[in-house]
Each structure stands twice: as structure tokens, then as C-alpha cells.
Queue: 3 jobs
Job 1
Amino acid sequence: MATFVAALSTNSLISSSSLQQSFINANNPSQTLPPFSLPSSCFSSSNSSFFSPLISPLHSSNRAVSPLIFRNSSNVCSSGFTSINASTSTDKKKVLIVNTNSGGHAVIGFYFAKELLGSGHQVTVFTVGDEGSDKMKKPPFTRFSEITSAGGKTVWGNPADIGNVVGGEAFDVVLDNNGKDLETVSPVVDWAKSSGAEQFLYISSAGIYNSTDEPPHIEGDAVKSSASHVAVEDYIAKTFGSWAVFRPQYMIGSGNNKDCEEWFFDRIVRDRPVLIPGSGMQLTNISHVKDLSSMLTVAVENPSAASGNIFNCVSDRAVTLDGMAKLCAKAAGLPVKILHYEPKAVGVDAKKAFPFRNMHFYAEPRAAQDILGWKATTYLPEDLKERYEEYVKIGRDKKDIKFEIDDKILEALNVSVA
């Protein structure tokens, strides 16, 4: 097992599967280390942990892996989820997507619409706000012609007036990919129910999970009672017979208007240090939006299986923060210099200085795998190559960018940049 621990310390991506794990080498992303089987002694019978704190050794004599142990994926079903091998429905649906007009989630609705249309469903995308607003001058909204040319419809308006905006049209499925609180979402839920929608889907957030020393977050883990999404999820469950909730994390994909990989590229192409808070070994999950939209599509096409379930809408691999920097550098074909810092010590707010949470923030899609039979099809190292090509194509590598917060951190670290 010592070989496994050493491999983990140098690899960027961590794959989750049933009782076997495979790993990607950050120094050679095309190389996947062979899967290995973990003995049953590595698993506890209930609420076992995937990842123990790196700074603390394990003392339990019945756990053969140190400092790592894995949760048994079968815990998903034993924790209240039911695996259903229902056949996928061949019926074509009329789907309404209520889509946010800003933030990283907007691209989910865009890809979801395109995938549904490609599968023969009818789709209307209801974007919040005004079609003529400045927000519509950014992707993915500038690419809505891809939806309409495929036979989809696009409308704009206020979700509180949703019935009038869609002209009294009825839909089989409604997805709310906009609201974060009950005041915003309840009018959509109520209208969908009264208009005869058969299924209601909601894009929530994996950010509602309580912090844990035992990543990954899995469906059924405790959530923050103060999170506004929680009340929305509860209301939908009480209102609809057929419903499903999806909790995404960070995502990448063409058309995303919220920086993710771009943050790393901005520094790498300008030969600047990539400043990462903490140790850089924090685990997170970065998914391609194609995988998220495919999970949603499975739920539409297999509503009986999806009904009444919460799904972590994420990929099946974790990546360390240092690993993300290394993979972005390899995608760009450039070297990278990583520097670590403690936000408080240098006097900066980590939320403003870095695009990801300065902690383990990693969820796994166990319910989607076990209940829907869903599988991720994308591969982060290759995805990043595509993202870098687009980054250069739009000229962002030549854009004048200010790095005021970075410069403040570097000054506190006594590091100069040419």
C-alpha cells in the first residue's frame, strides 16, 4: 500500500468507482496508473471516510491504508438511495429550461438544451431578464443560435410571470436553473404544478454541504440549514410527485462565462507564479458541463428512476489544487511555478484571490452512477487542451490583465516578478 500512497502524492486526478480506484499521472496526463483493489479490511461498515486529514495518521489497526481510506460505494444505497434498473423512456418530451442570466450555471442550461434537442426532445429556454441586456452579449447567450437552429425556442422574462412569458404553453418537464431561494423558485414550481408538468428538476449546489474532514461529499450527507437552496429543495419535494435535485460544483466548457481554468492560464502564459492558498493538496471536483447535461438528460428520459432523488452533478474524479495548475500548464505546453501562501498571513481574502475554496471541496456522483446508470465521458487533461485552444483563439493570452492581489501576495512573500 505504500506504493499507492506515494502515487497519490504525485498525481492530480483521483477516480472514484466501486471498489477499484485508478489514477492519472499529473506529470504524464495520458498515463493512467493501473486500477488496484482494496481489501475489505479497508472499509468500515458505516459512514467510513474517503480521505482522512493529511496531517493526521490513522490509528485504527483494521484499516490497511494510511493515510487514506475509502468509502464503500454501496453505502449510497444503504443510506437511503434505491438502485432502479428501469428502462429509459423513448417518449419525446417538451422541456422548459428556466435559465439564469449570469454566473457559471448559465452554461448548464445551454448544454442541456442542445443535448435534449439532439435526442429529439422539444426545448424552450426561458432566460431571466431582457434579451437586449448587456448580459446577453456574453457566452453562452451569444451562442443561442445553436439552440434555435436545432429547433429550440428562446424566450426572456421574469420567472414570477412565467405563465404569460411562455404564452400558456404546457410542458412535460420543467428545470429551474436560476433561483437560489424559495421566493424566486416557488412561482416556477407552483406554475409548473398547476399547468400539468409531470416532472420538476432543480439545479441546487454542492456548496450546501457542511464542511467535512471525511471527503467526498455524498448524497445524504448533512447540509447547512442556513443555505437558501435547502428550503427550495424541500418545497419541491413536498409539491411534486416526480422531482429530482442536482448539486453541481465547479465546471468547465466552451461558453462558460465564469473563470475556472482561465485563471490558471492567465498566469501560466505570462510566466507568473500560480499562487495557491494552503498546501495545494486540497481536493476539489471540476466537471465538464457535457457530463452535467448528460446526467440531466438521463433523468428526463428515465423519470421513474430519477424521481425523489438528489444527485451530485459532478464528474467522477477529484483533482488537487496543485494538480489543476500542473494540468493547465501541460495543456498549454508551458512550465508552471507554484507558490503557496496562507491568506491571513499575507493579508488577503482567499475568496477574492483564488477561484476555488481553500479547503477540501469534493463531491462524488454516487447516486447518479448507482440509480441512473450514468457515467462520465470526459477527461480533464484533454478537456483543458481544448479549453486552452479556445483561450488562445479569442486572444485572451494577449489581453492586458492586472494582478493587483497577486502582487500584494508576492510582496508579502518577498518574491519579485520580472
Note: The chain is about 30% helix and 20% strand.
Job 2
Amino acid sequence: MLRTDRVSPETANHDACRMEHTISEESFQKIQELVKKIKKKIHQRNKWKNNGNAIKSVVRSFVR
């Protein structure tokens, strides 16, 4: 999560370790669930964009 915000890898790893050992297990699990949902949403959006471009190119080939 920190790496996507352009935090250096060293700082991200250090902070993630501190967060993991400081917050409750419940909070840690909720953060993991949130990250998974965000990644899934990004994947779906990218998949749709790629399919959209493929569909556009097929339609263009028929129109020409």
C-alpha cells in the first residue's frame, strides 16, 4: 500500500513491519481485505479497458 504512494521501498518495508506488529490482528485483516478489494477493482477496470479497445478495433474493421 505504501509503495503505490511513492514511498521508498526501504521506508515502506520498515513501516509495514512496524504496522504489522503494532496494530491489532482485526485491523490488520481489515486492511488486507481492503487492499484485495482495491486490487480486484483495478484489475477489473484494466480488463474492461483492454476488452474495450479490442472491441473498438473489431468494430472499426467491419466499418471500413
Note: The chain has a mean pLDDT of 76.
Job 3
Amino acid sequence: MAGVLAEDKENLMPLGALSAHPGKRPNEWNHGNDQDAKRKALLRPSTRFTNVKENSSSVQQPCKPSTMGPPPPRIAAPSSNASSAARPKLVAPEQRKATVGKLSESRVGAHHSASSASKERRWQLTDFDIGKPLGQGKFGSVYLARERKSKYVVALKALYKTQLQQYKVEHQLRREIEIQSHLRHPNILRLYGYFYDDKRVFLILEYAAKGELYKELQQQEHFPEAQTAQYIASLARALLYCHAKHVIHRDIKPENLLLGMKGELKIADFGWSVHAPNSRRKTLCGTLDYLPPEMVEGRDHDAAVDVWSLGVLCYEFLFGRPPFEAEGHSETYKRILKVDLQWPEHPQISAGAKDLIHKLLVRDPRQRLPLKQVLEHPWIAGHAGSDALGC
């Protein structure tokens, strides 16, 4: 996978969150002119994830998520004398050494070498009980699933190879798997492994029992300050972890966030993420409402783009809409470049919340509030719980 993190094909369309239809924010793409066509083509429209009705007669009854955690890995059969049909021994997650999705030795869709195949048994679809569909989109579907031996509950994402090839996103898939599978943080959705057959690639993901954060935001219209501070603190900690590993997410927004069993926030989509040890990047990517000024202007960017997105997200949590929303994307660009922040009369928010947003949404990336200081900000410290602050 030496080439997975290379910059050469970064402009390809990302995988994105699976969606039942190509959703978009209101009026996001309704205006503009031909001069904006190239820029618009590189941007990622908002993907509002839509659940599939649970009473589908085409699938079996859902398995109960009573046991949560990662499915144990496959290991080698005990000896050559063992029956070829025997199932390999399963080990505890903390003893994990190698999985079929070991990205340092294999690529999506590639065949394992004979020596690798002899040492480990691949996951296959028959290893899982498949439950209700959780969502679907242009690349495939996500299902609730349970590993039969260990009873671990997971989310199984099935992606069709023909669709991946049609939209030329194989490179994005490899990079997304490479990055997400190596991240270990309570506020980042785990990618446990992957396997494939002739037609599909399957990703074994952590199951986020409480679903999509965006759906909760729609239901509540906006979040109270305490809840917003809790989410922002959790995200700041997760992004600090990513940046320490030279990973820039580049597409933080409500659609890419899920909620775990206890309501904890989890970053779920790394389709635009990049491993950038050299820090500076040039690709215009992400979602229109969350673009920072440096991307709009076509300048180099670094991890500070995630800090800007955190400010946009904080505003959207508190008011129910992004801060620079306008009738067309050209007007949105102008408002972003001016950092044209406006405060609606309702709901009323505290001066502390406004202060944090002001310090995150700064035109100069070098002047944005560092993530460590976000966690120390009085408004965050006064509202977020000890779990979110890492205390």
C-alpha cells in the first residue's frame, strides 16, 4: 500500500457517506455560472443519510445489539493435519495480530499471495448473520450484522465493484481504508477489517447504535449549548488525535457524524481524509458550506481546515443551519471570504459560545484557536462533561 497515501490522484471523487439519494443542503447548487463549473465539480455535495424502513420483508429479523465490540480476527489453522473445512480459532480483540484486511500486505480487490493465504483465513459473508438494512446509496448498502462465532454486532457496508470502478473511486476506497483502519479513538468509528467477493467489497465497521447525528439535529432543529459543547469537545479531542498522526479529515459536518450506544459522537466518514506528513495540501475538497477561505481562494491548506470546520459545525449545532448559507454558491463563497458572521435573534446563545465561534472562524489559518485551547475555552470547560474533555 505504499502508493495509497500518495497525492497523485487526490482529486478523485470520495466515497462519502452512503445515502439513499444524492442529498444536498437547500439551494446549494441552484445558482452560479459556467465560471464556477470546475470548482463546483470538485466539491462534495452534502449527503443527508436516509435510513431504510425497518419493516422490509426482503431481509431477516435484525439481530439484537446486546454485545458490542470488534469481531475477532482470523488466524491460521492449528496444523496442516486439520480438516480444510475446520473453522479457525477465534482470539480476543486485544490479541489481534493480523486480519484479512491487513492493508500493508494487500490492496482492495487484489488476491492474497499463496503464503499469506496459507497463514490466515479470510472473512467471508457466511461468517455473519445479516440483519436490517441501515442505509443505502449509489455505491451499495449498510447492514446490521453479527459475527456468528463471537456474536459481536457490527455494521457491514457492501460496496459494488462496478460502481466503484464507474466513478473511479478505487483509490479513495484504498486510502479511506488505510487511514481509518489505523485510527483508535473513542470518537472515531472503528474499521475492523474488510473482505471481498467477485462483485462486492465489504467493510466491517463499528455499529453506532443511536444512528446519525444529522437526524437528531433535524428532529431538535438546534442543540442546547451544553449538548453542543459536549459534541465540540469530543470532536476536538478526535481531531487532535488525527492531527498527531498527520491525518487531516477535511470534511467535518453533521452528515459524517454518528452516535454510539451512550450517545457519544463518532467521526464516521474519511472519504476526503488524507495522510499529510508534509502538512500542506492543494486539493479543493469538502462540502461547500464548510469550505475555509484558503480553499475558496485556491491556496495551500493544512490541518487548520479542520479547525475552521469545527467552528462552522458549532454554529450549525446552535442555530440549525451553517453560518455562511446563501442563495447560491457564489454568494456563499463571498460570505466565507468575508467571514460574514451573523447572529440570528433566535435562539439566544451566550457570549461564551459566540467567542469560541469567532476564534475558530478566522480568515488567517495561523490565527485560529488551536484545538488544545478549544478544550480549555471557558465555554467548553463550563458545559462539556469530563468524558468529552478527557479528564
Note: DSSP finds 13 helices and ten strands in the chain.
